[in-house]
Amino acid sequence: MTTAPDRRAALKARHRAAILHAARSLVAERSGPFFSADELAERADIARRTVFNHFASIDEILLTLCAEILDVIIDDFVSAVATRPVGADTLLALFDEITASLESTDLPATIASIGSLLGAPDVDDPRGDTLSDEAFTRVAERLLVEASRRHPGVDDLDVEILVHSLMSGVLVIAKRWVLLCGVRLDDDSRSQWRHLLNRLTSTLRSGYSSGS
Length: 212
Known about the structure:
2 domains, globular, 212 residues, Arc Repressor Mutant, subunit A, 78% helix
């Protein structure tokens, strides 16, 4: 027999799912996060106050939708690393594995999807910066676990520095790419991404000792 707490939990889950579905559809229809709490509540067929029983703000709803997108790419990225043959138990081998996975993962599509949720790119976007920082920290944490598992002979501090350096660099070029290309996906924008990624990995691989 279903208990009252079970029914309440199921109702809360349905309401939360309805809110996210409504927000997702409104963003798709309006090409960005251009809707009010009242419009969201009407689309979800719930009371306005119910929206804020689940989420503190519209921004929190958008961040949740972005997190769903990122969860998929994080899984794909970590899986790409995990399925590659383990090379020598060295820091350079680990670097090569991660950079190869970065090159094979469709990061531009993910960044573009997030951009469509957050609206037009802005060089000074606290909301976007908060999401980006949180997202890439999550990627780095999960990747760090996999990297340490695959290369137990490499010093753990070296692994942590490498992983966070790469992920911080990816965050920097992702922001630059959005400012250059917006959220469009075409041959030119993908070429721009490959150029930025190659510049990042080449810089980290060679270091700065020979630079001017």
